[in-house]
Amino acid sequence: MGIADLEELRSIVNSTINDSNQHLKKDINQALHEHPETAYEEKFAHDTITKFLEDRGFVVKRSTHGLATSFEAEIGSSGRLVVICAEYDALPQIGHACGHNLIATSSIATFLGAAAALKQSGAFGRLRLLGTPAEEGGGGKAKLIDAGAFGDVSAAIMAHPMPQNQLSDESNNWSGLAAMKMIASHKFRTEFRGKTAHAANEPWNGVNALDAAVAAYSSIGLLRQQIKPDERIHSVIEVGGTVPNVIPDYTRMNWNVRSPTIAGADKLLSRVKANIQAAAAATGCELNYITAPTYSNMIANKSLCSIYVDEMSLIGEKVLLWREKPITASTDMGNVSQTVPSFHGAFGIPAAPDIALHNPGFAAAASTDEAHEACIKCAKGMAMLAIRVLLDDELAVDARGDFEHNQGW
User: Fold this and answer.
1) Cα separation of 29 and 88, whole Å?
2) Rounded Cα gap, residues 61 and 152, in angstroms
3) What is the 3-state secondary structure (H, E, C) of 150-198?
4) What is the DSSP string of 230-247?
5) Which residue has the higher pLDDT, 1 or 62?
6) Contact criterion met (CB below 8 Å) for 73 and 128
7) Mean of all residue pLDDT scores within the chain
8) Which residues contact 398 (CB under 8 A, 6 or more apart)?
9) Any bridge partners for residue 53, and if so which?
10) Residue 382 vs residues 2, 276, 343, 365, 367: alpha-carbon distances, Å
11) What are the backbone dihedrals phi and psi of residue 255, each rounded to the nearest 5 degrees, phi first?
């Protein structure tokens, strides 16, 4: 594949995405932002995206891999396979405060551009746009991995929006980050069961499940003093009782336990559980765990990241290749990166200095014209990354080698 061939394919990618830009903005980006849906409830997003693709002639499989709100659209019948992951779930109460409306838009644009270029090239290769629900705590990609959605994949790619000010420093104004390293996270709920009683008339006959939750929460607060700076423990009490004069016989807590690696997260989890079990024992409550898919730490593939940076530079975007310190957040794309060679980049969008992810202000930032244009630029780089994995044997081998020999960041 020569330089002239690549230039022709870039032209096709850019023109295809540009031609679809306004429809992507109105029919996908704005529509999803105005209809936020939480994990596994993304019915509007599922139907909106699949219709958008079907209207453009793509054959779409709905409700794939046992998940009602997952979907697949694929072109090609032989050769290497690149999967483009689309996220579209939102957060409870604060909507698209993680910008998944932009993720869906950039991934769909990537698929449109890469599909047009692959068709023009006449080469072997397969492209799949995979709808991945429930990234926000539901572990959709972990379930898709178990269902076989990432079998025989040469590369899986996607990108995430971030506040622009978190990407730049005093000397450089980076528009994006290629190697978006993220940490591992155990996610689970705890249920404490006690015995109800009248809180004034016979408190001695009660077993207070709220006391168990409070004791667990407090002891974990003390544990935080003794953990490493890059580790995190979070918890909320989801169910705490009803009225003050009835001793609660049931409480439920939701937990995240994070560490830079899955091995570190496992060790921290054992310490956290010791405190939770002590709270149950101290109050006489029964304890039950409700587990959710664990999010593995993200491994950034060096070869894929390098090509993305090169492609973005050709459209005038200055993307940072990597930085040593990981982002202390987690994603189920980490699980994918432990399964196949993966790219999970970041693109910056304008936001106030005090605005970060999972903040209502970021939801507002994710709806702006500037944010949309940033995700479209990112899509052009990802589309060419996908094409080069499909058509460049050396790149495909290098990316697989980075993955198999753990030569990532």
Assistant:
1) 10
2) 19
3) CCCCCEEEEEEEEEHHHCCCCCCCCCEECCCCECEEEEEEEEEECECCE
4) T-EEEEEEEE--S-TTB-
5) 62
6) yes
7) 96
8) 303
9) none
10) 19, 44, 9, 22, 21
11) -130, 145
Q: What is the pLDDT of residues 2-26, one digit of tens each?
A: 666 899 999 999 999 999 999 999 9
Residue type at 374 in one-letter notation: A
Distance CA 239, CA 209 (A): 10
Rounded to whole angstroms, the Cα distance separating 127 from 83 reads: 6
Q: Residue with structure tokens 């290497």?
A: 80
Q: What span, in angstroms and rounded, lies between the C-alpha atoms of 42 and 46?
A: 6
pLDDT at residue 204 is higher than 90 = yes
- Full set of structural domains in the chain with CATH: 3-182+298-404 (3.40.630.10), 184-291 (3.30.70.360)
What's the CA gap between 250 and 157, in Å, rounded? Answer: 43
pLDDT for 97-152, tens place per residue?
Answer: 999 999 999 999 999 999 999 999 999 999 999 999 999 999 999 999 999 999 99
Of 407, 127, 298, which Cα lies nearest the Cα of 397? Answer: 407
- CB burial of residue 356 (10 Å; 0-12, 13-18, 19+): middle
Tell me the percentage of the chain whose pLDDT exceeds 90: 94
Q: Which residues pair with 186 in a beta bridge?
A: 257
Tokens standing for residue 51: 């219709």
263: three-class secondary structure by DSSP: helix
Least confident of 3-7, 211-215, 244-248, 312-316: 3-7
Phi-psi region of 128 (alpha: psi -120 to 50; beta: other; left: phi over 0): beta
Helices 100-121, 3-23: axis angle to 10 degrees equals: 140
Q: Distance (Å, rounded) from C-alpha 180 to C-alpha 314?
A: 21
**This prediction's pTM:** 0.95
- Hey, is 20 helix, strand or coil? helix
Q: How confident is the model at residue 1 (pLDDT cuts 50, 70, 90)?
A: low
